[in-house]
Amino acid sequence: MKLDLKVLVLLSLIALPSVFHLASAENAPEEPRSFQEFLTYPHVEKGLSAIANHDYVRAVAEFKQARSWSTESPESALYLANAYNLDGQYQNAVEVLEAQLIYTPKNAAIVSALSNNRKAYDLQLLEKGRALENHISELQAYLTDTKPYFYDAFDEHGWVDLFAKAFAREPERILSFTPRFASNQAYQDQIVLEAAVATGNTVFASAYIKELASKLNQDPQLVEFLSYQLAKDGGSAQAFQILMQAYPFADASPLLQKKLVLRLATLIEQNPKLVSVTELGILAKPINSSDLRGIQANLFAALKNCSVVRSLLSDYSTPHSETEWRLLGQCYQANQPGLAEYAFQKAMAMNPNIVNTRAYAYQAFAVKNYSQSLSAWRSMDTKEMSNRDLESAALTAISAQEPQYASDYLGQLDQRNAPKDALYWWLEAQLELKEHPSIAAEDLKKAIALTPTVTYYSQLASIQQELNQTAEATSSLEAALKLDPSNTNTQASLAYAYYQNGQMAQARTLFLSANQAQPDDSRTIKQLAYTDQKLGLNEEALKYTELAIDDYHLQAPGDLTADNQNQLFGLQRMHEDLTRRWTFSVDATGGNQVTTVPNSGQPGLTSRSYSQAEAAYRLGDPAIDDGKTISAYSRVFAGSGTLNTALPLYAPMAAAGLRWKPIGSQNINLAVEEQTPLDHVAGNQTQAMLRASASFFNSGAYSDDWHPTGPGWIAQNLYLDAAHYVTSGLTSLTSDYRISYHEKIEIGQTIEPYTHLQLNTLNNQVNHDLRAGLGVRWNCWSGNTQYNAYPSKVYIGLEAQHAFTTYLNEKNVIFLSLGGRW
User: Fold this and answer.
1) pTM for the predicted model, two decimal places
2) Structural domains in the chain?
């Protein structure tokens, strides 16, 4: 706003004391009373007359002359200053009044006139500067040459404004003017820094802030003012520097200190790059106030620096607000989830709002505390729960085995017509899994269509295997492996599927990959042993079998479950079978009656007793190929014939032949042998025999092999034997079903009561024999090592037989049997 200078002068004259008056025809100075007054009076009178005629130049001259005769008179000073003002020589007027203060420093009229004159002068300078605002170069020159001394803070503020406009691109030149008033000093600091920010002169800004360091440390209000203005006007980095310069604002009031700490934290959260590692170390030191430590914790939580948060909230004090407990919970989540659950629970106890309750529900689920997590979800109003919350609550209910609640939460999603995402369909699948696996499979397919994951494909494969959809299960696992080729669990699952489908080569490739990723996984090692055995890779099978056995032996025997013990024995039996080339066996039956037995030396023939010794050697490399073998064998056998003796030495025969076991999973043998008499008993002759034999139902839990667990076991066996003698044309058939119970008496020994039903027939349509037997045997296994199951077994038994239909004379017989295998 422009002011009329004449008006200002008039205002200054009104403030003059009543000892002199404005010149006018009616108002002249008083008559002189002294010689000095006599000398000055004419000049004063002429000066006042000149003012009345608006001749201000002459008035100045006259008052100067008067002043020369009265240099210490306040009246002469006032007259001259007034003339100067009227002539526009404001600076000269001020100088006259300032000079007079030397003589009369306490003169109220001089002081008042000087103040008014000075303000008028300042305003005149200010208005002149404002007139040059649109002419920057001229304004710059004017401000550089003019040195005002403001008595009014408002006017001085205007002058600082002119500097801001003139030197907007040269912030250092703004500092060429030094304001008197503190408020304007702060304002000058603001505009200097804002100009530096606007021009990108950050080096100057940083240096200037360092120069302000002492002022900032002593004046928190200045810190507040400058940081606020700079942050508001885009100078966040400089606002941060100012705040850090005065941190932790110890001289500020508690309220202002909290305000400044919060502002600093907000700036850092908005731009974490502002703060250096060193400054972070300073900010991490706990302030002596729980409120401020809470702000510090919030800051470091935003910076993902949980170690500092834990230090601030647990080492130095107990969190005293729900927010701080929640922060602590967030920072414990990664490494100490149990403590995170406790912290969220504390926050929820202080304020059970949905934010705190939700946080606790999620964390309780994370630590598998499903029941508590479900309780938290159930305490919430479903109207306040988001769709994600409802899905998470349903997932928690499934995990807590409370499917009815899961169904309720999914029903809420249905009522909302919420989009059905992959998790929704997966949850639906879990609800249908037991009762309707086919529906569950369809739900999983919908989940996969939206978001294919390894988990979804793997579970779908499991259901498909349950539904005997082996090809589909394999395809699902192949798709899962494509999503994550390095997933060892998927590799193993697909390898199992290949194994079950008989795709052993593919299974082995995946098992090897899984084993390379996890060399200590005992399940993969076992499967490699079985797979290599199926492929006939016996050396590799032996290696993995030994590794698997070693893994079991690392455990204390008492820690092995029944399944573990059975698996260990199975591996040891496989190891023993893979390393076997030779097999030696002896069996014999002796009694005082005629008997028929399926394993007699001469199939289909009868004798009072018999004895046999055999040696067999597995041919080929490998000697056994997935259970398939070809063996060369030689045996010697004899019976009692018509001799009334229990010693089976009659008509000894020697035989040699080849035995082929063509199916690895079935105990079926085909043999061809040449039999040669060892004496000259009548009727004995050299002849060839073709033979087929099989043993069924005698494997796994019902085998006659040693069982490592339990007090005993039931065994059964269906033995079938067909032999044809080429020379004589005789053909015999034998069928024998046997069931027994092995009662363990010591490790490696059993007492075995048994019964069996046996049918023997020859092709002469006369020799048919159907009988039942009841007996008991003592069995003893021996020779086991760390890697091999018992390679040897001996037995001794006593049996009574009754024939229902027979071509023999005796229907009831008793005999003693013994035998062994090595």
Assistant:
1) 0.58
2) 5-121 (1.25.40.10), 580-821 (2.40.128)
